[in-house]
Amino acid sequence: MSNSKIGVLFVCLGNICRSPLAEALFRKAAAEEGVESRFRIDSAGTSGYHDGDAPDARTTETARMRGVEVTGSSRRIIGEDVEAFDYLVVMDAENLREVRRLVRGDGARIHLLREFDSEAGDDLDVPDPYFGGPRGFEDVHDIVERSTRALLDRIRADHGF
Questions:
Q1: Residue among 12, 17, 42, 81 flagged as catalytic
Q2: Active site includes 18?
Q3: What is the per-residue pLDDT for 105?
Q4: Which parts of the chain sit beneath pLDDT 50?
């Protein structure tokens, strides 16, 4: 785990829709609260399907229309990420199973992002909008924005700032 900055890694399947959006929204929330410098924020996927690809155009367009810039390129999560990040924040139960396979001991804190969503109820999966229409990307943006803001509040409370 990181010593100087709090490392937060967002993880989904391909690292082109949900996790880069979560990275961008968490970064924006931290910047708005003046605490972005306290974090190292990144995203990755459990698969290598899209290695090196830019975020999905539908994700970036939905975010851009809401004033958020989603950038980066897809990469697969690797074992070193488990040690390098304090929080591994996954989008769904399948991602959770894959990330747990990488974890040895209790190093990083692994969470489903929707654990922090006050509207999640019993459904803790962030739906994958990849094969859906535009409304799916809007819904996912709402879910991820709520959840990342609540995650930031939780981390700040855990670390006392």
A1: 12
A2: yes
A3: 66
A4: 2
DSSP 92-122: SHHHHHHHHHH--TT-SEEEEGGGG-TT-TT
Q: Which of 18, 114, 146, 149 is catalytic?
A: 18
Q: Tell me the helix, strand and coil percentages in the chain, rounded to 5.
A: 45, 15, 40
What's residue 11's pLDDT?
98
Q: At 87, is the secondary structure helix, strand, or coil?
A: strand
Please pick, among 27, 128, 146, 149, the residue that the annotation labels catalytic: 128
**What's the pLDDT at 25?**
98
What is the per-residue pLDDT for 2? 43
158 flagged as catalytic: no
**Tokens of residue 8, six digits:** 């937060």
H or E element at residue 143? helix 134-159
The pLDDT value given to residue 151: 98
Contact yes or no for 129/136 (Cβ under 8 A): yes
CA distance 72 to 33: 23
Domains, the chain, in order of start with CATH, read 6-155 (3.40.50.2300)
Q: Dihedrals φ, ψ of 112, to 5°?
A: -80, 135
128 is catalytic: yes
